[in-house]
Amino acid sequence: MNHVNLLDFDARELLAWCQEHGEKAFRARQLLRWIHQQGASDFAVMTDLAKSFRATLGATAVVAAPSVIADQVSSDGTRKWLLDVGGNDAIESVFIPETTRGTLCISTQAGCAVNCRFCSTGKQGFSRNLSLFEIIGQLWWANRLLGDVSEGEDKGARRISNVVLMGMGEPLLNYEASVKAMQLMLDDNAYGLSRRRVTLSTSGVVPMMDRLGHDCAVALAVSLHAPNDALRDELVPLNRKYPLRELLAACMRYLEHAPRDFITFEYVMLDGINDSDVHAKELVELVKDVPCKINLIPFNPFPNAGLKRSPAERIRAFGRRLQDAGIVTTTRKTRGDDIDAACGQLAGEVQDRTRLVERGMKKMVPIQEIRA
Ligand code: SAH
Ligand code: SF4
After folding, report:
1. Which of 92, 170, 266, 349 is flagged as catalytic?
2. How many other CB atoms sit within 10 Å of the CB of residue 138?
3. For a Cys-Cys bond, which of 24, 74, 113, 176 suits 78, CB 3.0-4.6 Å?
4. 18 and 127 housed in the same domain
């Protein structure tokens, strides 16, 4: 008999499943807490559930996340996991610790069909959408493997305070599973994060941005990268379908639902391509009516990218121009680049695994060890 994977259920589906097995609603809530708050996968530890229910669970269900194939730690504390999702695909998630928060960056697809010119995930092509258990499984694993804060004021707190859907894939092209995963992140009986602490990043799938505003209005980051359609068509091919005017109008509509009163625009700094003073001026003009912050991302190189990162001084000058025009602008610190964990470097193909060692992987932990 096939066991059902309870990690692949959202709260409503778990409730329905429990009711089908003759259990009351509060049992479903208990089970949800065991799975997502405690990170439990063994029904035997769930001692507040009736023995008979635990026996049913043991006979018919499992809590199974994708297996962790590699666990790497960067010199700056950034940690990256490679998860096997079968069929020669692997995905990556990255934990970025900072003084006041801990951010987990998760993937939503194996590969990506949008094929942005500067992105190594895009270069791999699209393999498939991840299922709910594969998306939420990244948070489930990270919470388990990181453990709680062990000392100080925050003792006992979770290390992950924020989640960003900014890893591999375009979350709005895997809409249903991404939304279900985010709803679990927001559920008080699961991860209990506020809508401001969950950020979805999109390359601009306009109709899905509207749906997201209605279904699950989390913080929104939009990958802009160019101040005009001609350049954006080249860098983000999806722009040919949803050009800038439509994208910015969708941002305005989203703001009616958003938990924050601004949209974050991401702008990757590519030497000689989109980083001139003229581009900065055009960008100011483009976004002048949209409440926004701009996040400049120094391009992170990968093999055969054929592109270069803008020099630090150029990034500073570009940022100053935006700031002088009154736009709050930040420059993303590149973290974890010694383990290829920086934005746009996530590759994760299984075929690529052997190269991890060459690329200077610090630590490869066998799965048995991780589980222990
Ligand atoms: N598909 C979504 C989310 C994943 S990409 C999106 O495009 O928004 C997350 C962010 O990383 C995007 O802003 C993307 O443009 C950026 N990125 C991709 N490749 C990069 C690279 N090589 N260097 C720096 N940032 C990159
Ligand atoms: Fe896909 Fe985002 Fe990479 Fe573009 S930047 S190819 S949308 S993952």
Report:
1. 92
2. 29
3. 74
4. no
Give the pTM.
0.93
Contact 94, 346 (CB under 8 A): yes
Residue-wise pLDDT tens digits, 170-224:
999 999 999 999 999 999 999 999 999 999 999 999 999 999 999 999 999 999 9
- Distance from residue 71's CA to the centre of ligand 1 (Å): 22
Question: CA 120 → CA 37, 172, 307, distances in Å?
Answer: 33, 19, 12
Low-confidence residues of the chain: pLDDT under 50: 350-372
Domain co-membership, 109 together with 218: yes
Maximal CA-CA distance, the chain: 70
Shared-domain flag, residues 45 and 137? no
261 CA distance to ligand 1 middle (Å) = 23
Number of domains in the chain: 2
Specify whether the CB–CB gap between 178 and 138 falls below 8 A.
Answer: no
Q: Which domain holds residue 365?
A: 67-369
State phi, psi for 225 to the nearest 5 degrees: 65, -15
Same domain? For 31 and 123 the reply is no
Whichever domain contains 18, its CATH number is: 1.10.150.530
How far apart (Å, rounded) are the C-alpha atoms in residues 45 and 41? 9
Same domain, 141 and 220: yes
Ligand 2 neighbour 114 (Cβ under 6 A): yes
Of the three residues 62, 78, 100, the one that is the final residue of a domain is 62
The verdict on whether 23 is a catalytic residue reads no
Active-site hit among 18, 105, 292, 343: 343
For 191-210, letters b (16+ CB in 10 Å) and e give bebebebbbbbbbbbbebbe
